[in-house]
Amino acid sequence: MPMFPIQLFDVESSTFTYLLVAEDGRAAALIDAVERHLQRDLLHLERLGLQLAYVLETHAHADHVTSAGQLRKLTGARAAVPAGCGIAAAELQLEDGDMIRFGSGEQIAVLHTPGHTAGSVSYLWRGNLFSGDTLLINGCGRTDFQGGSAAALYHSVVDKLFTLPAATRVWPAHDYHGQSVSTIGWERAHNARLAAHSEGDFVALMAALDLPKPRLIDIAVPANRLLGLRHGV
Ligand code: FE
User: What's the gap in Å between 135 CA and the centre of ligand 1?
Assistant: First the structure.
């Protein structure tokens, strides 16, 4: 039986938050929760009668503050984060190949996919890939800060994510064009930045982007290293 995440959206930062519900209908996990939607997310958990087992981050975000620390306090969930992101406050520091288990038999596989940031990971659950800012729909995340590397992102996507089955659904951390979900098959064939590009072309394309510094980076990254709790945990 295919199972889908519940996709939630923050209009201000165009961030997707994903609620994963176990087949038993009781246990849940949240990926990339946003501070300003804490109440919305708590209401979803209450409305659906869910016990939050994990709050997960795909990376230390530069454009919004996470609610992972507050969610952990309020629900008893455990925080799981990529080991390479400097988020020391979390219970679980995730490495490539790790498996997170929740509910009765749910498994979330951890794939280290550096490039947007050095520590970025993607998560794979029941044929659903949560690709963070590594792979976006018809695009990818920027690679010019937080240890980012266009060459590393190219290899993360082409060698790792594009080798997943074509039907794998792609759920990105952001979308700025009103899109919500794609598949590995579509992105492998049609992604404007990564399909049919050599590594050299891609690195040159990313170097030419010349993007402005994110407005919130100096606030958001230090806060997110504390799971969003600005005054410590
Ligand atoms: Fe990001």
Answer: 11
How much is the pTM?
A: 0.97
CB 19 within 8 Å of CB 28:
yes
Pairing assessment for the beta strands 106-112 and 99-102 based on DSSP bridges: antiparallel
Residues with CB under 5 A from ligand 1 (ion): 61, 133
Q: Considering only CA atoms, which of 76, 168, 78, 87 is closest in space to residue 122?
A: 168
How remote is the CA of residue 49 from the centroid of ligand 1, in Å? Answer: 31
Q: Per residue in 61-74, pLDDT tens?
A: 999 999 999 999 99
Instruction: Give per-residue pLDDT as tens, 107-119.
Output: 999 999 999 999 9
For residue 141, how far is its CA from the centre of ligand 1 (angstroms)? 7
User: In angstroms, what is the span from residue 116 Cα to ligand 1's centroid?
Assistant: 7
Q: 3.40.640.10, 3.40.50.80, 3.60.15.10, 3.40.50.1000: which CATH number matches 6-212?
A: 3.60.15.10
